[in-house]
Amino acid sequence: MDRKPSFAHWLLSVALLLACAPAAAKEDSGTVVSLRGGTLERLEKDAWRGIGQGKKVAIGERLRTGKAAVAVIEFPAVGRFVMGPGSEIEMGREPKDFTTKMNRGALWMQTALPAGSRAAISTPIAIAGVRGTAFSMVFGEGEKAVCACTCTGNIEVTSPDGKKLNVPKGEYVAVDAGKSVPAKAQASAPVLEQSGTVFDFCQACHVVGGKGKLKPDWK
Hints:
Number of helices: 3
Number of strands: 18
Helix content: under 10%
Radius of gyration: 16 Å
CATH topology: Jelly Rolls
Distance between the termini: 27 Å
Shape: globular
Mean pLDDT: 79
Strand content: 35-45%
CATH architecture: Sandwich
Order of helices and strands: HHEEEEEEEEEEEEEEEEEEH
């Protein structure tokens, strides 16, 4: 399960970013509530143009972060997204079925969905879907693998061949390109104690050595 540790440093700052980010306005568009460590750009007329903190983000827009940048984007009707360094995504287009495409990088999502709504993070390898409230992370290494984990709530991971797997609180699933979703999810707690993997990011929201226990400020 070793993955490149390049994502770990930015994820260790996620709790601080979310605590400091101001609330977004109540409307259908999203807002860049925090941007640190580099650039956030959106695709406009076939050219990437920089956008800053406080700027609005429309549904369906393509966004990318610089090599060291972390961007927090909030859609009041959907939830909050944290883009890691070197990430490229396309925001969802349908508010009641808000599927955000992740082409590369890492994306963390905390949903706040009304009844009957759904959100998902889609990659070429797998789709992680959420209903209700969930706290999840999807990240990958190019087109080689994708991993989804859940801290609260539940997510459903679907592979291109249609196989589905429920990933409950405290568990994760890793899917390799060209392979089906594993038979079952695995407990995250044993991995939280390891070093040298991107699961180091869990120390931002879990008590170190606490066997998967969440920190009080992440409830």
